[in-house]
Each structure stands twice: as structure tokens, then as C-alpha cells.
Amino acid sequence: MQKHTKFEPFTEVTPTSPIAADSHGGRAKCLQRLVRLELPVPATVALPFETVHNIAKGHFPDTERLLGYFKEGTLLSVRPSSEDPDWGGPGAVLNIGMTDRRHLELSQTHGEDAAHSLYLRFIQAYAVHVARLDADDFDAMSPSAEGVKAALALFEEETEEQFPQDPARQLTQVMRSMARAWEGTTARLLRQARGAPADAGLGLVVQEMALGVGPGESGSGVIRFIDQATGEARINGRYRRQSLNRDALRKSDEAMYLVKDPRGASLQEEAPEAFKRLNRYADICRSRLREEMEIEFTIENGKLRVLDAVRTQRSTRATLKVAVSLAEEGIISRDDALLRLPPRALNELLHHQVDPAAKRDVIARGIAASPGGATGKLVFSGQAAQQCAARGEPCILVRRETTPEDIRGMHVAEGILTERGGMTSHAAVIARGLGLPCIVGASGLRLSVQRKTLQTADGRVFGEDDIISIDGSAGEAMAGAVPLLEPFFDDDFETFLGWAREAGDVGIRVNADSPEDARLALDFGAQGIGLCRTEHMFFEPERMAVMRGMIFAETEDDRSAALEQLLPMQREDFTALFEIMSGRPVCIRLFDPPLHEFLPSDREGMRQMAEALDLPLSDVIHRVDSLSEFNPMLGMRGVRLGVTMPQIYDMQARAIFEATVQASKAGDPVVPEIMIPLVSARREVELVKTRIDAVAAAVRNETQTEFTYRLGVMVETPRAALRAADIVQHSAFLSFGTNDLTQMTYGLSRDDADRFMGDYVRQGVYPEDPFHTLDVEGVGELLLLGAERARSQVPDVTLSVCGEHGGDPETIAFVRQAGFNYVSCSPYRVPVAQLAIAQLAIRDRKAIK
Amino acid sequence: MQKHTKFEPFTEVTPTSPIAADSHGGRAKCLQRLVRLELPVPATVALPFETVHNIAKGHFPDTERLLGYFKEGTLLSVRPSSEDPDWGGPGAVLNIGMTDRRHLELSQTHGEDAAHSLYLRFIQAYAVHVARLDADDFDAMSPSAEGVKAALALFEEETEEQFPQDPARQLTQVMRSMARAWEGTTARLLRQARGAPADAGLGLVVQEMALGVGPGESGSGVIRFIDQATGEARINGRYRRQSLNRDALRKSDEAMYLVKDPRGASLQEEAPEAFKRLNRYADICRSRLREEMEIEFTIENGKLRVLDAVRTQRSTRATLKVAVSLAEEGIISRDDALLRLPPRALNELLHHQVDPAAKRDVIARGIAASPGGATGKLVFSGQAAQQCAARGEPCILVRRETTPEDIRGMHVAEGILTERGGMTSHAAVIARGLGLPCIVGASGLRLSVQRKTLQTADGRVFGEDDIISIDGSAGEAMAGAVPLLEPFFDDDFETFLGWAREAGDVGIRVNADSPEDARLALDFGAQGIGLCRTEHMFFEPERMAVMRGMIFAETEDDRSAALEQLLPMQREDFTALFEIMSGRPVCIRLFDPPLHEFLPSDREGMRQMAEALDLPLSDVIHRVDSLSEFNPMLGMRGVRLGVTMPQIYDMQARAIFEATVQASKAGDPVVPEIMIPLVSARREVELVKTRIDAVAAAVRNETQTEFTYRLGVMVETPRAALRAADIVQHSAFLSFGTNDLTQMTYGLSRDDADRFMGDYVRQGVYPEDPFHTLDVEGVGELLLLGAERARSQVPDVTLSVCGEHGGDPETIAFVRQAGFNYVSCSPYRVPVAQLAIAQLAIRDRKAIK
């Protein structure tokens, strides 16, 4: 539109004047909307970005003509109007037009106090913003004849000029100072940090002052209609007599309540008509602007004026509540409601939070690896954590880094703090899976596991049983207990996620290894289990002992005997999962980790194990030693174990099939999915498939029950992606394990990367931590290549992403674009993923319309 | 040809009869060539594969017609004729046609002894091969009237049949037994192991017997004209009177020498005319068949007959010698000479070899990681190896596995034996680089480094100073000293490699870190250094101390001070290399390994270090601990160090440039190549390039000398290959480090892979160890993608492969096809690479003609 009309250096705000947010700023646009809604907005003129930019360069518009829009002698305010209100801008300047003469006149019409106050305030603002004098010097001056005099004298002394008495000159100078402030370096950096582009423009809004000072009921206030924390309908705000604009908020002790209140006077009682009208305006805004607005108003001698209205700032919880309410009232569509919340914001709702108001005695900072707050006794081992939990005492587990042996301790701890590790270290991944607050890489700490002490950088020492708190959202550990806010899944949350699921067009499954995880997944509405890691199941003490027996087996028979013992346990694990998921798909990854993870790493552990297995210590040491690896990530694990020690997979397949038969009898028919990890060659799949098929046939025969199953491959090596056309020949599905794939594509261990990842992201070497957001250019190409090649052979092959990236909105956008069938992520990331997918689908539908 | 003529079930061997190696076998073809050369070959009929295959199935050709080619009553031999003589075949059967009646007749014409011998021999052969009787039962029988009688009686008793008296039946049965033997499972597996295809056919050659028994000068022999070990011209072989075919070789104590010899009678003296004619025949074969032939001959009552001639079996050294001789005499072209030796065979010539005749007391078997034999005192540490070497005593270094700290010890040891590791473990790679015999993964051993003992699987214990030997070609360690054969680079070797270099069309550089390596590389004719690893330079004790100081530096200044100390040392390193290479390209890889490789891993080492650096032990432990990594291969190394601790690369760049200025003054101008390791993103290259450019500018300014340099990238991560179009923007060259690239593409640590690689290759999961021969399908695709993408941006970018695969003939074929500019490999692999490239180029040229 702008293009086709003559450029106007300013425009009066009328229902039809050509005003747009991207040329005049959000405030100007919003004021136009209020005018259209016939709210009593004082006369207003909007200056577009271009005009303000010219002003900064010294080219002024015709100020006299501008003033022509207002009644002679009217006082004016100038307020900033950037494209997005969040980008900030220079402060408003009020009372432009105040001169010695107006001062005199207003003393008569509005009383001396009002006149002094209006003039002094303008002199101060002009002195500070335009003449760049020191604000402190004006602070002590009181709104009195003397005060005004002193202010004028100080101004003249400092500037060696008389205080300007020409309203046009005043206005020009104010606009120039605001225009220049916007172009300053600091202001630019600040707004860029809030997401503004480098060339973001500033509009200005020149408005007739409504005078909240003077005779009759005069004052100003701000009114909101929702609770900013919860989103519940609740009128709040303040009104102050004899004040201007937002003064009521600044000095709230001198202000009135809005709604009738036992604690003091209220607008509802003192000016019931104005109060009623404000409520009506709120309803109008809500239904016509489809938003909860905060209204800035002035009562000028009994007459209500609306100066401005902005979207009410609110918490994530409130945003969700408002969106659901508006949609339920039919004001906005469900789709629009879903678009109102950035997916990641949902994280806040899923965890305890440290009360933002709490005092923090920070003792260490690290990487905010899993959000939420927790408080508890300091413990230094998984065992101590379990003991603590047994006594019913909450605890925070502190470790150099965690290993699978710590899993049970992590399950019972309130939070986790590690000295080492990054966003995708063991501790971080597990904690996110468990929804536990976690800080990793708190490298300023000095941890002594032996002495059970934690020494902070400033020399303080904390021991076992000392209370600490952690804020996993901020990456801060604190001494003592801090107040926590409860997580909040209410009906609105349920409703909102329900809409998201309906709107979404990509499946969502969950990474779940335990019945608890599985139940949580169902609560969040996951469609199945996309990754059930089986190795955690072996870390329970009795199973661990059997595992070790298997590892130390001298003969095939001994090995088989140990696996025999594990079979019923695994069968129970799977039966439980199948029953909970009642017919929904469950994808079980066969045993993946290197065997040495099941062996002790210290001398004492080896001694105990030698005793337990009745072996010479030297044998144990030798075996542990011979299994240790230089690069365990790239070692003897996954399908490599499956091929060279096939009895393990045989046992697992049998457990899965027997559980299938059992669970199908009791409920919905189960079609288990079996996933082979760390594949790099087609033949690996063939070898495993042959044996699993044989086990299936045996179980069918023994149980005289028919069942089917789906075999697939976890694509974790670059080679598996490149050779997907081969590998898919024997696979019903391919699930991309993007954690490992990222490690291998970059040649970068996630456990070791945090030492330099910060540096790398800061220097722009990597745009983001690739373990956090999928590296679209590298790892992403492997996903696309793999998908394309797999589909070239098996067009209907099921494709998915499991692992940490599965819950990341950007990654989800990428794989959705590539037509993947589902993503799988840890339970607490499911809501985020659901919303991300819903938004993508909605935006696509809107684009097509 | 075969197609267009009527199928002939047998063909007389004449100069023009339709006989081909791929239908009648190599022997039949060779006999036809001898006939064409007018050598006195007895009448011969050749049966093609198809006929023999039919015989095996019971369909016989017209034997009467076959016999029609021979004079009535002639005795016949049947010999196998497979396509390639190396594939083997059933033994020859002689004297077919011997019957009671011929026995009587021959007693009169050739004497009784001859007749008995001929008949008995045929009865034995027939009984064993056709009637399948036990050979042992016939062994004791003497060639006499009684012997013949006993043999006939035994035959009749065992078979309950009369010995066949019809020559046609005899011939049929002999051919049938040979045809069936060929089709047996064992025979098929044996020949497949020698490279024969599953459906390889057998031809048969039926030949008139030349009788080396009977009146006058009668006998048989075999004559060769070269020394089979050296290839020198030297007549050798044996002649035995009253014998048939190859008898002279079987019982050489009863045989004559061929050339006049003080030790006994010789053919030259006893039958000078036959001897002369044989020499003439050899000359004819040599010039017309273009090969050194071994001739099987018979003198029948003074008349010389040539039964057969085959290529003289010979050692690699002899093969090379003969090829060079034939080419120098103009009998074959240089190209043909180069095609006569498989490239890998050259390895044998480059190392000491364990004398094949030596007695072996094998104490352990492992992976044959680097070829050659060595003998020396057992030592258990690099330090002990150095002490041994200082005393002038050869030693064998035995370690669990080697680390960079052992390098100096490895340099002085005669050979290396490790308990762990695979073909591409540190020990194996370094040993091949040094040309040292090496066995890795000798897992049957029990090594105690503390007690300094080596216990073998059978319980024997060896201690320091015990002598052992290793055979790195066979992967065997032996007790005591074994006799070794010298390596052999003679003039012929030089000549041959010179021809190879002329014929080749892909550059060859060498991986060399030291002046010794560089000189060796020049000796082998390498065109430059393709990979100079700089880290080994820091392992000398004084440098190590400075390195550690740098790692422990508290401030930037301390770090810079430590690097200052290293600068002159590095400058000397590079100056020496540049001077030796006199203007040839030298590609220096910047510092690559993780810093913890320079720190001690045991308590005692840390204690010593704490003392040396005057630091509390706890600080040292903490630092060592904080630098340790879960997966060092994927950790803080290469360009990641370069970006986060840029002073190291600054120092190295300065050393390189100062050395460039210095070496260019003294000799040919130097254009150093600087290679950045472990790149995964373009920005890494930009950051490093900016700093190196600045260092170059500073050095140019300080020295007032102009020089240029080339900056490139080592492509080791899959991502670098995928993003080659980006990365090449700042690179003059890309060199693919296929070791690391293979590790990351497969997700497979070369140090840990040997635990299952054997299994994997045996089960056909991987067709070959991908660290040994490039995985063309996976890693190879990344090479092709990388090359294509890089060239799309910079068409003349230099592309190469460095690392272990650079010396592998199959890998070379692959990268040559992809148009790579050069390969770089360890010095001792250069000759193999040169020959491999020459052969590829020659074959391409021949294909185009």
C-alpha cells in the first residue's frame, strides 16, 4: 500500500489513515485499532520510521504543519513506536508545549500545583533527554513555584541558553533526541539481543496530553484484566489521582486499587462510571483485538481517555490459559491458539521452578542441562542417594560425571550436578529423560569423592548432608534451600496439548525404558515407544551379577546358562511395557553398550567381584583390562556384540516374543518392533535377522501362537546412512539415532565436546551446538540421503528420528519437511514436540490457503 | 572361434589346430606353442573342458577314434591341463597301453627291466587312481617279474576283476578317474583357495610316451635356465638314465647334474649333443614365448624329446630380475616387464626375511602387522630399548600396546610385539612407517610389564635379555635366534622402480616426520612429503618437558613463553626437511593429538612431573584428570586445539615460514604446504587461515623476504567430505585422511576393532578389513562426494589420499579412477604404490589401444 501513495512524513491516526506496524510501528498501529473501536483516544499523529531516521540525520519534517493537527496550546506527549513493542525504545516525553505562558494559564485553569507539576516535569525531561544534563541535579526539585524557578535557572546556567518557549522548537528537539537515542550503539545492541534486525526502525507517536492533574476527578492509571502469572480473569492495576500516564504504577503506595478492596479506596467505588467503561473497553479489545490488553487511561476532570493499550505481559502459563480461553469462547480458532506459544516455552510448565523472587547464594555455575529447580541433601554416590531416598530425604546427587552405574541413584535424586560433561553427556540425557533438574560441566567446583566434599571457587566447602539447591534452567547451584514453584499441568494444559495432537501431522513417540516412563508417555499422549533401551534393565544389582557371570563365562554353555537366568526378567520387562502401551507400537533396541560398562572400574569393585564370582583377582583384572577400550563409542558394542556373541540377542528376541504372546493374550494384539543398533553393513542385519527369525519360529511353535514382528535398523553411523539402499532390504523401518550420527559425522564425542563447544559457538565455528539442534548441513544431509536411498528400494519404509534431537523444534521442522513418519524423544519433551509439529502443520495449511 | 566351429571332443595338437587356454587348458596351449616352435614334442591330443566334464558325468568320447591318432601299440600318458597351471589338478598317469602282451614285446625290444618297470608303474597308477586301491600295498613291489605278478594278483584279488588288457578301456577309465577327481569337493575348495573360479574346467592332454627306459642313451630330466631364488642365468635341474618324465627330480641322488660338475657325472659330458639342443630350445622359448621355461625332456635311445615346458617357478626377486632382463634384451617391453609382478610382492624385497628353511619354536601368534624378520633381546619399555641400542645390542620391544611415548624406543628396536591392537593400531602403523617387523594382537601372551616377563600360552616364561625372534610376515614370535635373509635392493630393483615411475600417472608422496624418513623417501623416488606429522617431534625428552610446561601454563604469557622455547626446535626440524627435499613439496600437518598424550598416565609419572614443574601433585593429578577424555579420537584435538589455543599453530606457522626463508636461501625455493587436521566446518579453516596469513606477513616483513605457501585441509570427518564445497573455498588442497575417515564412517575405532574384525571378515560382514583396503562403498563414496563438491568450486584443487590406504593397490586404483593428484604413504610402501600405479596406467593404455 505504502508504495502506491505519496510518502507522508506524518499521518493523523484515524480509522482509515495508511498506518502499518512495519512502517509506523506497533504502538501507532495499535492506537489506530483503538480509534477504530471508537475508544476515546486523544488526537494522535504517527511518524513513520523513515521520518524518524531523517530526523536523526538532521532533516526535520514541517513541525508547524504537524502542530496544526492539534488545538492551539495543547500539551503533547511523544512516545516511541517500534515494529515490535519488545524491542524497546527511548522513554516517552510528556507535556511538550509547556512554556512560561502556559504555566501561568494552567495555574489559573488547573490550579498551581498542577501547573508546577506539569512544567517541572517537562523541564526535567527536556534537560535530561534533549540537553543531556545530569538527572540527579533535578531530582530534589519539588513541584512548586520555587522548584520550577530553580529548574529553569539550572537549565540556563548549564546550557547558557534560555529554556525554549516555542512549542514547535520543543517538539523538534524532543523528536531529534529520541531519534538519535534509537540509533545509538548501545540501544542497537540491546534491541538486537531481543531479536530485532540491525536496521529496525523507530516510529514516533505524538499525542495530545490528557491531563490527569487539575480540577474534578483527575488522574491516571493502568488496568489489566488477567492475572499475569496464571492467566485467570482478574482485574488488576492501579489508579492515582493527580497523576499522568503510568505514574500510578511507579508510586503504587499512593495509588488506589481498581476493584473494591478492603485494604483501601478503589476506582470501582470512587469513579464507578469510568470503571464500568474500562471494563467495556476491555471486552471490546478482547473480542475485536483477540487479545488480553493492558489499558493506559487518564481521567481528565471526570472524562475518561484511553492513551494506549498493549498486550498484557504474562507468564507462559498465563499465555496458555488465555489462548485456551479465547479459543473456547470462539474469539480465536484453535489453530491460532496453538500458534500463540513458542513450543520450548512449555518446558517451564513441566518442572518445579526456583521462585524468581528467591534470594540466590550461588556457589557454582554450569551448563543448564535439564530445566527445573530442586533442593536436597548433598550426596556423592548413587548408593548414598538411594539410602537418602529410603529415609525419605530429598537429595542432590553430585558426581564428577555419571555412568550407567549411577542410574538407580539418579532415579531417586531430586537433581543432579556434575563437574564435567555437556548438553548431551550421560547425566544430561538421563536427567532430561527423567525430567530431573540437572547442571553439568560445573567446572569451577573441586569435587573430592573420597573425602565427600565439594569445594567452591571461593573456597567454601560443602559436605555430605549439607543442603544445596540447583536451578537447572539457569545452570546455577546455590547454598541452602530455595523456595520452589510447583509444576503445573492443569486442564487447560491438557486441552491445549489435545488440540496440538489433533493439528499435528507427524507421529510422536517416546524414548522409554521403564513402566514409569511408559505411563508418563501415555499421560502426555505419545503414540508409542520409539526407543526402548534395554541396557538399563541390567543395572539392577541382581541382574548385574548375572550379567557379570555371562561376561566371565568360560564356555558357550556357561554363557547360555547366565542368559537363561536373564530371560524371565527381560520377559517381564517387556510384558509390562506391552501391557501398559496396550497395542501401541513399542520399538525395542537390542543390547547396545560395550560389556565393560558392566564391570567395575576401580580396584575395590574388582576385588568384590572376584569374591562374588569366586575367581582370582588377577583373572578379573585381566578380563576387565582386556575389555577396556580406547574409544568405547567406536568400539565393540551394538550389533558388533550381536554378531560375535549372538546368544545375547537370541535371549532378548525370545523374551520379546514370549512377552508378545503373553501380553496379546491379556489385551490388544502386540506387534513388537525390534531395532538393531550401530549397524554399518547390510550383512550385519542379515545375520541378526536370520537368528531372530529362527527364535520367532521356535516361540510360535512352542506356544502354538501366531504373531508378527517388525525388524528395523538404528541408523547411527554415516555408513548406514550412505548404504541405506542396501540396509533397508531387510528392514521394515529405519530410525536415525542422531546423537551418535552427529558424533561420527563431526568426529566429535558428545562427552568430550563441552570443553570447547562454548568457544566454538561463540566464535561462530558452529552456528549452534550440533548435539542440541540438528546440523542440517552435514548430519541433515545424511538423513536426507539415507531417507531417499531407503525409499528408492522400499517406498513405504517407516522413517523416524530418535534421540535428543527428536524433541527439538528446528530438527522436527527439518524431518517433517523430509516426510519422516515420526519422531521419538524423552517423555518430558513430548509436549514441546507436539506443539512444534502442530505449529508447522498449521503454518503449512495457512500458507496453502 | 570355438563358437563358429563344430564342437570337437578332442583335437590333435598341431601348429594350427583350434586350441585355447580357456577351452583346453594352459598345458595344451603351451604344448601347441612348442609344436609351433618345432620342438620335438611327441604326438599329443588335447581334450577340452567340456569333454572332460562330460566324461565325469559318464558320457565318453569315441576312444577308439582318439587312439587312432597314435601308432598302434604306442604307450600313452594323460596329464591335466587346467586354465591356469597354478590351480593344480590330478596327477599324470603314464604308460597307458601296457598289457601282458606289450609287457612281453617290450621285454624283447627294451629289455626286461624296462618292461617290468613300465608295467608295474602302470598297474600301480591304475590300481590307485582308477580302482581306488591302497597305494601303500603296492609300495614294496619291485620292478621285476615277481613284482609285476604280485601287483596283478593283488589287483585281481581286491577288485575281483582281471587287470584290463584293452588300451581303449584303460584310457577311458584313466580319463574318467581324472575327470572325477577334478570335480571332487576337496579339489574344488583347494583350487578356489588359489583363485580359481567355482566352475573352472579341466582339460586333458593325451601324449605318446617317450620311453626313457630301454637300450642306448635313455632317460628323462628337467632343465631350468635360471636360479629360481635369484633369477640369475644358471642352468640347473637333473637328468636320470632309465627313468620317465620327472623321475630325475624325485630321486636326485641317483641323477646326473646337467652342467659339468666336479661332484659327479653330467648331461653336458655324457650327452653333449642333447645338452646343446636343450640350450637352443631354451633360447627359442625365451625369445619366442618371452619367458624363462622349465623343460621336461626324455632321451629315447639317444633321441631327444620334449614332453612339456612350463614357466619356471621363481621367487619375487627372481621374477623381477627376469622381467628386467627380458625387457633389457628387448624381448618384452618395459610395460610388460612391469606387469609381471603383483605390486604387493615387492614387500618381500624390502625387509629381512626369516629363512624359510629355519626351524621355528613358535611361542605366540598374532596379527602380521608389518613384514620382515628380526631377532634380539626381549625389552619391555622404550627406555630399555634405547639402553640396549646404546650398548649396540639388537632388541625386540614387547608392550601391551604402544603409545607415542614409545616412539623413540620403537625407532631403535629391531622389531615390535604387542599384546593388543590390530592392523592399524599405533604399533602397526608406526612399525610399517619405520619398515620394522611387527606383530600385534598376540593375545595368547600374558605380559607382566612390572615383573618384566612374558608368559606364553604353554606356560613358558621369558624375561628381559632372553633372545626371541619375530616374523612380521607370518605373525609368529619364536624362542631364540633364527637365521634371517637380507633385504635386497639391487640395480634391477632400481631399474624396475625407475620404469614404474616413468609409466605412472598419479603422484606419489611419502608420509615422513624425520630427516631419516625423508632421505629414505628420496631413495625410493617419492615426489615429495604428503604428510609430515609434527607431533612426534615433541616427544624428545627436552621438548616433552617444554610441552608439559605449556600445557600447565596458568597465563597466556606463560604459554607463549613455553612456545617460544619450542619455536627454534621446530624451525630446525622444518629446515632440515626442506633442505633434504630440496624444493620438492613438503606438506606439514599442524599439531593434531589431544594434549593428554603428553602427560603421564600413571601415578609415578605424575609425581615426577609435579617435581619437575614444581607444582603440588594434586594440581598435576587434577589437570591430567581434567584433560582425560572418554573418546580421545573424537575429542579435543586437531583444529579444535588450533581454534581454542591458537598460539600453538601460530608458533608452528612461524617455524615453518622461518624455515622456508632459511632453506630457500641455501637451495631451491621452498613453497611449504600447511595442512589443518580434523576440520568439520569451513569457519575453522577461516579462523586458522587468518592467523597464519598474519604470521606469514610478519615473517615476510621481519626477514624482508618474499615467499608463498599453500594452505589445505585434511579431510578426516564425514562432515568435511560432505561440506567440501564450503571448505575448499579457503583451501589450495584437500588430503583425505582415510584412517580417521574410516573410523568415523563406520563408527569404529581402529584400536578397538581388532577384537572382532577377524570374526567380521570371516563371516563376510565386511568383505575386507576397511582399515586395510578402502571401503569403496561407504568411505569411498565420501571421497567421491568430497572430490566432486570441492572441484565444483575450485576445479584445480589438489586432491590426495594420505594415511595407510595410500599404499594399498586397490585403494590406489579407486582414487586414480577418481582423478586424484597423488597418494601419500609410509616410505616402505612407496615401491608398492609406484608399481600399482604403473600397472593401472599401462592397463588403461593397453585398453585404449
What does this structure look like?
Two copies of one chain form a homodimer. The first copy, chain A, is α/β, with parallel strands linked by helices and 849 residues long. Chain A has four domains: 11-208, 2-Layer Sandwich (Dna Ligase, domain 1); 219-314, 2-Layer Sandwich (D-amino Acid Aminotransferase, Chain A, domain 1); 352-485, Phosphohistidine domain (Glucose Oxidase, domain 1, 3-Layer(bba) Sandwich); 504-537 and 555-594 and 640-749 and 776-848, Phosphoenolpyruvate-binding domains (TIM Barrel, Alpha-Beta Barrel). Chain A contains 34 helices and 30 strands. An eight-stranded mixed beta sheet of chain A has the order 11-21-20-13-14-15-16-12. An eight-stranded parallel barrel of chain A has the order 23-24-25-26-27-28-29-30, surrounded by seven helices. In chain A, helix 6 packs parallel to helix 8, helix 21 packs antiparallel against helix 22 (556-581) and helix 22 (556-581) runs parallel beside helix 26 (647-666). The longest helix of chain A is centred in the C-terminal third of the chain and has 26 residues, at 556-581. The radius of gyration of chain A is 34 Å and the shape is elongated. The model of chain A has no long low-confidence stretch (mean pLDDT 91). At the A-B interface, helix 25, helix 27, helix 28, helix 30 and helix 31 of A face helix 25, helix 27, helix 28, helix 30 and helix 31 of B. Chains A, B: Keywords: Kinase, Magnesium, Metal-binding, Pyruvate, Transferase. Chains A, B: Substrate binds at residues 533, 589, 716, 737-740.
List keywords for this structure.
849 residues, Dna Ligase, domain 1, Glucose Oxidase, domain 1, elongated, alpha/beta, homodimer, eight-stranded parallel β-barrel, 34 helices, 44% helix, 4 domains, D-amino Acid Aminotransferase, Chain A, domain 1
